[in-house]
Amino acid sequence: MATGTQVVTGVDPDVRAQSWIGHLRSGGFTDWASWPRHERQLTRPATPYRVPGAQHLELLRRLNHRAGDAGLPPGLADRVLAADATGRGLPDLPLAGGVEPAYGARPVDPATLPPRELLRVALGVLAGELIRAERPTKPRRTRFRRETYRLVGDPWLADPLRAALVADGRPPGGGDAIVYVLGADLGSMLVHAWLAGAFGGGIDPWPSYWRRLRAEHRIARRADLLHAADTWSARVGPRRVRVVLDPTQLPAMLRVKRLPTVPTPTHVGAELARRLGGVLGMRVSPDQRRQILGGLYRRRLEAVTPAGLSRLRMPSEDLEWVSDAARFVRGQLRDRDYPVIGDPDLLIPSPAPPVPEPPRPTAPGLLDLAMDLLVRSSSSE
Amino acid sequence: MSERVLLHVGTPKTGTSYLQDVLFRNREQLAVQGLHYPADRFDGHFLAALDLMQLPWGGLQLEAVNAWDVLSRRVREAEGTAVVSHEILARASRAQAARALESLGHGSGTEVHVLLSVRDLVRQVPAEWQENIKHRATLSYAEFLDELRDPERSGDVASWFWGVQEIPDILDRWASDLPPERVHLITVPPSGGPRDLLWKRFSHAFGLDGYELELTEERANPSLGVPESALLRRINLAVNEDVPPAAYRPMVRELLAHQTLSKRRRTPRLALPPEHLEWVQTLSQSWVSELAARRYDVVGDLEELLGTPPKEYVDPDRPDEAQVAAAAVDAIHALLVESTRFELERNHAWAEVRRARAETEQAREALERSYLRAGYKIRRRFIGALERAGRPGRAMIRGYRWLRGRSSREA
User: Fold this and answer.
1) What is the pLDDT of residue A8?
2) Which end of chain B is more exposed for a tag (fewer CB within 10 A), N or C?
3) Which residues, other chains included, contact A282 with Cβ-Cβ below 8 Å and sequence gap of 6+?
4) For chain A, the helix, strand and coil percentages under 3-state DSSP, each to the nearest 5
5) C-alpha of B319 from chain center
6) Which has the minimum average pLDDT: A49-63, A65-79, B55-69, B138-152?
7) Backbone region of residue A380 per phi and psi (left: phi > 0; alpha: psi in -120 to 50; beta: other values)
8) Inter-chain CB proximity B64 and A282 less than 8 Å
9) A236 closest CA partner among A173, A165, A184
């Protein structure tokens, strides 16, 4: 209906766009600017495709390039082209070279789109793939004999261990259950508190979060071992509370053979989780979101993260005030007479290892990771 | 199935909140007469729009999961005419609009009409800047205008503005599939005319003429003046990093902007700068010509979209500082009144908490005394042994508790 200016290219722009979409859908990755401009070189599909935005087409092109001969998982191309771009940003953009619309967004060469626009589409697609692939695990029947326990404290440590125990038929609770308050060095716990939000119910970006802690020299609530120990002590009595700083001793205390280790992700991986959480929050319940991010997404992230990459950690310039706070906590634990499993000095953070700081998330880096996850995912886990 | 659906998709700042308020207040009465406005909360259609477009909105989107599916199902199940209305729907992409239309019955026998209330850009431009400021934006008015005039429209602000204000493009996305007689434009009359004229136009377009409706006198979305807008922008610059969205909404947007600063009516009003008038009028004229050629149903007059040059212009980027200071005093006053009220409520709540804690402590002491009794210790050891004995032991405990009628569980 809109009028516009016809750009003469020697080919019907619709035919060119349709044949390019067909090329992308079959795994091709020739860019739009290089796509043939003469009708005799083009194939028109039998049934016209709906033409999505240039962002969708460019994302598909890059995914095809990344996947190479292996190709994309079945059906992913269609889902990319049908996805909504998440959040605010440019609307669905027409392809350059066609009729210049009189109104609405300007046509673009898709290859010139900024990474953040492609990331908007990639986040929506990745969230959809994770929802599709998520399979709730049925926990094993409660074991005949089991230790009664509760795991609380640092949620980044406690939540996955608790989930693993539940899956193994060892749910928490029971009469006289010992409450194990898990912790680590305070610097790590402050990182874990942010990660728990990024992989859970949402939190501000890392720089904002850390800036607030630094400004007030404050311990985040999720990293507050004293608060957790005091809360449970008031509930069940101090004799049933243990502070655990050495997690290697937990399997013996819980009478299990082993417990999973919980790696810290890279900053880019964690930031992608945080943004995915925003998209997932619009599609599934809070519990499902937590399960998807903490389970399936985290496993896939570890699978694509190269070994040796720097993980998210406390900024080295904050070692002094965090160490002071840790010494205070250590003293309070001693004064309140909580049994501590492991050396209380484990609370004090060590100077950062002489390795490069973890790279900060940028739109190109996040897009790269999102595409890796899409290309290397499988529809079944 | 609804025979007819009236889908009102925009634009913002055209009296839509008032219309939606009337529809919500009178929904039961209207439903009896065959006009359905399916909503259980006043922002129900807003949440549905967020869900359709997967739009983040300061955390509110978390309440919107599946909201569009629920709304469209209720529309399909209604008999008669159904109304769906929210102005942010203007921003939907072609694909989202197509999904929405299909879900409402378009193509399956339901007669879907698209309605768009529209106002001249001379008023929309300053109104949208102010709306940005009320949503935590910190950009100056000059920066806002620069973004709007950038032909690339690459920034978020420009992309959003034109997405919800460029009338021919909105209708290309929403109504390209509809015959022109099912597309209805409601023009907002110029300032200074009869106060109820816009409502009469809405009433006519939505088929509400003849209904006895409970109308409200209050303005649903009051506007701020120049010094008030400048103050709000400065507040945003100072607090955005420290005040999360969930706190900003009630404290800044509602308490300060809507309940306090908007009551200051004697300060200069926001307006379009004179140097941008020609650009706006040229653009508006092209829209008017295009819309006339499309032969849509117009309730009002397309010429009203050309707007009227403002009588005066006061730059909100260089406001009268005495006026800003006076607005700040009003804002502080409102915050102190609210803080006092909050403090009194908090003191009352803490008194209740202390009382409850004292009662809990008394109960705990009584329990501790009972734990020291020999009979209790023997029972406790026996129960512990049963729990450690595994499944049979735990089954015996459950049976015992069932017989006794206990409902509490162990800590």
Assistant:
1) 42
2) N
3) B50, B51, B54, B56, B61, B62, B64, B65
4) 50, 5, 40
5) 29
6) B55-69
7) beta
8) yes
9) A173
Asked if B411's CB is within 8 angstroms of A235's CB, the reply is yes
Distance CA B179, CA B339 (A): 55
CB B305 within 8 A of CB B288: yes
> Cα(B385)–Cα(A148) distance, rounded to whole angstroms?
12
User: What does the block give as tokens for A172?
Assistant: 């928490």
Q: pLDDT value at position B411? A: 39
pLDDT tens for residues A349-366?
A: 998 777 777 788 999 999
Please count the CA atoms within 13 angstroms of the CA of A69 that sit on its side-chain side.
Answer: 0
B408 in contact with chain A, both atoms CB, cutoff 8 A: no
B152 in reach of chain A (CB within 8 A): yes
Burial code (b: 16+ CB inside 10 Å, e: under 16) for A119-151 equals: bbbbbbbbbbbbbebbeeeeeeeeeeebebbbb
Nearest CA in chain A to B51: A282
Contact (Cβ atoms closer than 8 angstroms) between residue A97 and residue A31 = no
ipTM rounded to 2 decimals: 0.82
Q: What is the pLDDT of residues B54-90, one digit of tens each?
A: 998 888 888 999 999 999 999 999 999 999 999 999 9
Mean pLDDT for chain B overall: 91
- Give phi and psi for A358, each to the nearest 5: -60, 140
Residues contacting residue A1 through CB under 8 Å, at least 6 positions apart: B171, B172, B176, B294
Q: Can you tell me the distance from the alpha carbon of B323 to that of A168, in angstroms, rounded to the nearest whole number?
A: 68
**Interchain contact, B56 vs A282, CB within 8 Å:** yes
Average pLDDT for B352-357? 89
